[in-house]
Design brief:
The chain is 48% helix and 13% strand. It has 16 helices and twelve strands. It has helices at residues 32-52, 63-73, 81-95, 106-117, 132-151, 163-166, 180-189, 192-204, 208-212, 246-253, 298-308, 317-330, 333-340, 345-349, 356-373, 379-389; strands at 3-4, 13-18, 21-26, 120-123, 126-129, 219-220, 225-230, 238-243, 265-267, 272-275, 281-284, 289-291. The strands form five sheets. A three-stranded antiparallel beta sheet has the order 1-2-3, covered by helices on one side. Strand 6 (219-220) and strand 7 form a beta hairpin. The longest helix is centred in the first third of the chain and has 21 residues, at 32-52. The termini are far apart.
Length: 390
């Protein structure tokens, strides 16, 4: 009998021989039926190992090792490096730097989500809980590291978490573009030395980082184009060319001579000293033209929006505005896709918004087409007329 219960024990033990090798051990249960099932599982595993060989054990890896290797192999070569590094620091603190990946379970990550959701951020002197989308960025980063560790490095990561159950539902897509009236009010209150940068953003839809960092070497007046590097997982980013219209060429030429390296600059209103990229102090002279720093432009931008009475509008919304205007003017979302440098039309659809006025105009076009046809019986003629009108 392969199942037995030792004297003084309530639990069953198994003891059987497979191909001359004895296998002995506790089942850990006191119910004999359950013990039979456990014994059967042992026999099946041993027979499988005999037929196909014993599976190789995977080496363990701590979270800090995984993050370090991921950054070396992937992170430092993509545009979102700095943001990912900040998130890694938070995850190392909350999960424990020395915790093995195999110890991170669904329950661990659920508790992580709860702790992240309870954090606060300051926005315009107001403290708010972090958004669900922000929490999801942390989980998505950990998911990328986990999958690379499991599939590429072949280390012990435990069971793959149920990501879809852990990710939080995010708010509906935010829709915001600048109306013609708002644009007029904005420039009325915006500092004149900021006009060129903002007008260029509204026309081209280029990201703030690309505009701030635009150099004269990136501008080709002979071909009327601007060459930039887009955010991408490719090393160095993805090359993208933006064509320039005659008025945009004139806008850029008006900036020639203000700075020898950067295209868009601001005029210093009072002398001051700032810290340069190398940590050394730099002198800013009154009346001098200098490139926009990462955050130095924000106060003047916020003041202009407040003075113009424009609410809930971010600089990145100039990108939405450019795409929306292109689609309204051409009816072709592929043109907007090329302008913004997207690789997917689905991404562009989040930028090129359709509002109630667009829907009303489309419905009016359909009504006018049907009226012109006169309610005839030929359905194809109605459809053809609608297409021509639209």
């Amino acid at each position: 009998m392969s199942l037995f219960r030792p004297k003084g024990s309530q639990n069953w033990y198994f003891d059987f021989t497979f191909r001359g090798v004895r296998h002995y051990g506790p089942t850990g249960v006191s119910n004999k039926t359950e013990a039979k099932g456990i014994e059967a599982a042992h026999k099946t595993r041993i027979a499988h190992e005999h037929a196909f060989g014993k599976p190789k054990s995977r080496p363990p890896m701590a979270i800090k090792e995984a993050f370090g290797r991921y950054d070396a192999e992937v992170g430092q070569h993509i545009a979102t490096t700095s943001a990912d590094l900040q998130r890694m620091d938070v995850l190392l603190t909350l999960l424990g730097a020395d915790t093995p990946l195999s110890d991170i379970t669904d329950d661990t990550l659920a508790q992580l989500v709860a702790r992240l959701r309870s954090r606060t951020v300051s926005r315009q002197k107001e403290k708010r809980l972090v958004a669900a989308s922000t929490v999801n960025r942390y989980l998505e980063l950990y998911r990328r590291v986990w999958r690379r560790a499991a599939k590429t490095w072949k280390v012990d990561c435990g069971d793959e978490p149920g990501w879809s159950d852990l990710l939080l539902p995010e708010a509906d897509e935010r829709i915001r573009s600048l109306s013609a009236d708002e644009e007029a009010r904005l420039f009325k209150h915006l500092r004149p030395d900021y006009h060129a940068m903002v007008r260029f953003a509204l026309r081209t839809g280029m990201r703030l980082g690309n505009i701030r960092g635009l150099r004269w070497r990136d501008v080709d007046f002979d071909t009327a184009t601007v060459s930039i590097r887009m955010k991408s997982r490719k090393p160095g980013g993805r090359h993208h060319v933006v064509p320039l219209t005659p008025d945009l060429v004139a806008l850029l030429k008006a900036e020639i001579g203000r700075h020898f390296t950067y295209v868009f600059t601001y005029e210093c209103e009072k002398p001051r000293r700032i810290k340069g990229a190398d940590g050394k102090p730099l002198q800013r002279l009154k009346g001098g033209r200098y490139p926009f720093s990462r955050d130095g432009w924000r106060r003047a931008w916020a003041d202009a929006l407040a003075g113009a009475g424009i609410e809930d509008f971010r600089f990145h919304d100039t990108r939405h505005t450019a795409a929306t205007r292109i689609v309204r003017a051409t009816g072709n979302i592929k043109v907007a896709k090329e302008l913004l440098g997207h690789t997917s039309i689905a991404t562009t659809s989040r930028y090129a918004h359709v509002d109630q006025a667009d829907v009303r105009a489309a419905l009016t076009a359909v009504s006018q087409a049907i009226t012109k046809v006169g309610g005839g019986d030929d359905e194809n003629s109605v459809e053809d007329q609608v297409v021509k009108t639209a």
